[in-house]
Design goal:
alpha/beta, 12 helices
């Protein structure tokens, strides 16, 4: 496989991060470039990243949020492919090679994602199938065999795990940093990908465990309040015709937005990766030590 740049954000939640990293090390084939973006952890997470070899660490003194932190990480990525992975996930055998197989199945596919448990319905497996932790690998292996090569084109993807070619950033830009601290930035990224002419794919043969709202819980943040606030920003940006509570509780149809936007207009749809610079940041690059 080609070099994959894994961009992972952290803000506390050390136990979740350690568990995720261990699963990636155990179950990943091919060369990896680790890019960790920390948004002001104070629970030993920074020390954990420093203890790992070959990690490019971006340490923000303040919480820049998911969109801005992800943009920072993607700007530092040197791989031809970028994998965004939440720190509250646990990956399973052959996860990355299977995601690559899905990405390569169609040159029009811009982003691929797996199925999971705690995730929006578009990528969620039935509740009765959710495996216990001790059965996770067995369940994933069984699903990989039964659903080999299967998937579907999706109207949006959830940002807990996304794989795409870095050229997508040249095409649509990065994440929109107005969606702070998190929620709806992945909706926006998905929609702009589709408007640009690329498609989204859910690989049904790849199951990744997702804790769900792990960073919000680790930092005692109000997930619902953040979601509603960003739903309002999203509604305003894309003129959904729905109120923020309606969108957040009942959902919306991303395809309605894409249908109204037949052409990708850079001035309107492209989001520069640079974003805000009003934060103190320290970058540790292992190649320079």
């Amino acid at each position: 496989m080609p070099l994959t740049s894994i961009v992972m954000l952290t803000r506390n939640g050390l136990n979740l991060t350690r568990r995720c990293v261990d699963s990636v090390k155990l179950h990943t084939e091919g060369p990896l470039e680790w890019i960790a973006v920390d948004n002001g952890s104070d629970d030993g997470t920074l020390e954990f990243w420093h203890s790992m070899d070959n990690v490019k660490l971006i340490a923000n003194e303040d919480n820049r949020g998911f969109a801005a932190g992800t943009n920072q990480g993607m700007m530092e990525a040197s791989g031809d492919y970028i994998l965004l992975l939440n720190n509250d996930t646990v990956v399973t055998p052959h996860w990355l090679s299977s995601l690559y197989a899905a990405l390569f199945r169609d040159p029009n596919i811009g982003i691929v994602g797996p199925v999971s448990n705690h995730v929006a319905p578009i990528q969620r497996v039935p509740f009765e199938e959710w495996p216990a932790p001790e059965n996770l690998e067995a369940y994933a292996a069984k699903r990989q065999k039964e659903w080999a090569g299967s998937g579907f084109y999706a109207h949006k993807l959830i940002g807990f795990c996304m794989l795409f070619h870095r050229s997508l950033l040249d095409r649509i830009g990065g994440f929109d940093e107005r969606f702070f601290p998190g929620n709806y930035e992945d909706d926006d990224f998905s929609i702009r990908t589709r408007i640009s002419g690329k498609r989204l794919w859910v690989a049904q043969d790849v199951f990744i465990h997702h804790e769900g709202q792990g960073t919000f819980a680790s930092n005692r943040l109000d997930y619902k309040r953040s979601s509603l606030a960003n739903a309002e920003k999203f509604r305003d940006k894309w003129s959904t015709g729905l109120s923020a509570p309606e969108m957040d509780c009942l959902g919306y149809n991303p395809s309605d937005i894409v249908a109204r936007e037949p052409f990708f207009i850079p001035k309107k749809h492209f989001v520069p990766l640079g974003g805000s610079t009003a934060f103190k940041t320290k970058i540790t690059d292992p190649t320079e030590s």
